[in-house]
Amino acid sequence: RDWMKKNPQASICTEEGVSEFKAIANFRDYHGLPTFRKAIAQFMEKVRGGRARFDPH
């Protein structure tokens, strides 16, 4: 946590680093895991201040 606080741009877990998510999102192993996709989408929605929405249907 301390490292992320000192380096927010380097972590996809922060608002400053969320733009880097696309660099790892291309990794395809999670495509068959709906629960994981939903969790990631909810995380992204939270990080982006509610500006992103995910509709699984």
Automatic annotation (TrEMBL):
It holds the Pfam family Aminotran_1_2. Residues 2-55 form the Aminotransferase class I/classII large domain. GO terms for molecular function: pyridoxal phosphate binding. This is ACC synthase family protein. It comes from Musa acuminata AAA Group (dessert banana).
